[in-house]
Amino acid sequence: MKRIVVLAILLASATAWAHKPSDAHLRLELADQTLSGRLDIAVRDLDAALGLDGDLDGNVTWSELSAAAPRIDAYVAARLAIAADGSPCTLALGGPALTDLSDGAYWAVPITARCPHAPTAVTFTYRLLFDLDAQHRGLVHVAGQTLIIRDGSPVRAELGETTSFGTFVIEGVWHIWIGFDHILFLVCLILPAVFPRRNGRWQPAESMREVGREVLEIVTAFTLAHSITLVISTVGLVALPSRFVETAIAASVVAAAANNLVRGIDARWAVAFALGLLHGFGFSSVLLDLGLPSDQLVGSLLGFNLGVELGQLAIVAGTLPLLYWIRRTLAYQALLWAGSSAVALLGIVWTYQRFVA
Fold first, then answer.
1. What range does the domain containing 265 cover?
2. Which position has the higher pLDDT, 10 or 124?
3. Are residues 214 and 100 in the same domain?
4. Are residues 212 and 75 in the same domain?
5. C-beta of residue 188 within 8 angstroms of C-beta of residue 265
6. For the domain that residue 8 is a member of, what is the CATH number?
7. Which among 145, 201, 326, 347 has the fewest CB atoms less than 10 Å away?
8. Which pLDDT tens digit goes with each residue over 119-154?
9. 245 or 297, which is more confident
10. How many helices (H) and strands (E) are present in the chain, helices listed first?
11. pTM value?
């Protein structure tokens, strides 16, 4: 049990907000040869990069931000470059303000890029915060497109085009793979599938076909549930506070893991459907944060959901054969009981962190 507690504490040191990566938004409009708009960077990210909390009281005040404005401008100027058809544009930053987005306060600074000529394509070299957070995203909104920048490599936007379907597929796959709570929830659901109850006793499954049928039911139920809430939330029919959604998702991980320990509900497809509704709201927050125009909504929904399913299937395909192979061993029993206990404990920590955040 001591090892379980240590493992849970180590895992809990990772971010509790699995659905809300560190983002910065660059919104630009083109007029002739000038790109103008605004750059929004989370205050917490700037504090991590530049140490803005001078009195170390855990709260970055406006006076501390104002005093650090020249350092913030220098940080941005050193890590952001824009080029028009390969020719560098001259950047100028305006007077900053604070704005509130879904996950807190952001430093909002007007930005102007004057280019040598009216561009047909714009290249962005964005290198903010990647050295501090490998999961940081630079979200560039320009001329009806959304570019998702995940590293310091230059990204080119052909003006007049829309965001590609493949971009959203990749974003869906990426989100499920970095969504540690999603992965643990899914693995907890399929973990007992190789050791079902027959004739009142828990016994190893007799065939992979038997296991595959149950896992298909679980995955289908989860997919249907999160697809429903992903759609209704993204189109604005239902809106729930992010804090509530994230806390409830963490609690769903606890529920799935605890069910493995007490085996109270053997119909895990029903658990997958009921709790999968919560995960759909978490998925939708990713698309909403992208700030997509209405004419891209259908394509983004389809692409993102397809990406989530592909990422999910990859996890199942990599996990299920291993579980089936070890189902008759003590290693499986240890994984079922000790692993589920550790996940339940980790989920409790996440639930608390997200509730008080």
1. 2-14+179-356
2. 124
3. no
4. no
5. no
6. 1.20.1250
7. 201
8. 999 999 999 999 998 889 899 988 878 888 988 899
9. 245
10. 12, 13
11. 0.75
